[in-house]
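Consortium newsletter contribution from the modelling node. Members have asked for a concrete example of what our holo predictions look like. Here is one, prepared for the uridine-5'-diphosphate-glucuronic acid complex that several groups have been discussing at recent meetings.
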Amino acid sequence: AHKPVRQVAVFGAGYIGLVTGACLAELGHRVVVRDIDPAKVALLRSGDVPIYEPGLGDLIARNKERLTFTTDLDETLHGAELAYVCVDTPPSSSGDADLSRVWSVVRSLEGAAHLRAVAMKSTVPVGTGTRVRAALDAGGLAHVGYAANPEFTAEGTAVHDFLHPDRIVIGASDEATAALISELHEGVDGPVVVMDVRSAEMVKLASNALLATKISFINEIATLCEKTGADVEEVARAVGLDHRLGPHFLRPGVGWGGSCFPKDSEALRQLASNTGYHLQLLSAVIEVNNLQKRRAVQKLKDELGTLTGMRVALLGLTFKPGTDDMREATSTVLASRLLAEGAEVRCWDPMARPAEVEPWVSTTRHATPELALEGADAAILVTEWPQLKDVDWAGAAAVMRRPVLFDGRNLLDPAGMRALGYTYMGVGRP
Ligand code: UGA
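And here is the predicted structure:
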């Protein structure tokens, strides 16, 4: 059957906008991505990608006939049948998501003559769709449909996640809009789930909250394993074999971070409290996550006696491997706590952008893990970059002032490290 090609305007050339735009172009649609940042647009036009995401650069290059970047509104809206809102919704001082960028996009749609639907990819509070609907009606766009179409892609695997999702969630108030968004995804390998707008908005927040809950849960079990002599790795492996529970998101560590879990869990908690309900479980999940970071620093303190004057190496800085993203990374919390305790912080990371690391460790970032470990009194493995498996750990033990290592991701083999002379501490394992 002949597949209709749509003209799509994507607002926002951030993480979600770029992945959405490139993947829709890959599906054969004509896409214009608009961003208000001229430097970012210039970079994209020159063939560069402002973020590190595996496969994204290739996808953009391969689809450059169908995928353009601009700051210009008229160019973006010219012929556009669909508008995708992909701007960021950072937390505001009240704890509610700041939707100002969303509103400025919605306002800018007023002159779009061919527009048939507006789709929301930005993560927004439940009820936002109703407000956007009212704004569209007031702006002379009452005939334009609206859909909440949340994204579930994870950084590092975003392109694959978009093209092979577990589900495509479409929350629309009318059938025609649901059909249009569904048809736009033709070629994507995953089931389409259609529902009302508010439910679709809730799916996004509930999914991230449940994923964060699984991690905080296993982190608490890990703490208990430390106190009882059990091994959380064995526990998680066997628990995960129960198909009702599943093996995913049961890796203990130094707590979850990133641009989504911290922001979305706070947003959901705030959303609940705005309705007068206090989310008990989610509040505990957030508190356990904060505690997990404090415990990491405490472990070193207990081992070294004091942190004052100690040189501590942080291995891995990004919130997870496979990304250059430092947003809400656990490393930033650990670094500031260590500095506050009077320690000297050194670090290594293969991808973190220097500008984001600079505020705290500009002068002590090293090109290799081995260099960061030189003369250190202790090290924390913060991000499980695979390179850290190949470190010359025997050589490092010889040049560290004290071979104390807290493996915050259980990446290394405890017995092997102890055989090399390390005081090795993992998360929840003997
Ligand atoms: C997350 C979700 O996984 C995506 O489904 C969602 O679309 C996305 O947020 C979003 O809302 O945009 P992401 O933040 O890219 O994706 O990263 P994850 O791979 O989920 O990891 C989040 C954090 O949890 C990281 O700090 C990671 O180290 C930590 N984590 C993850 C664990 O500590 N243990 C685990 O078992 C899994």
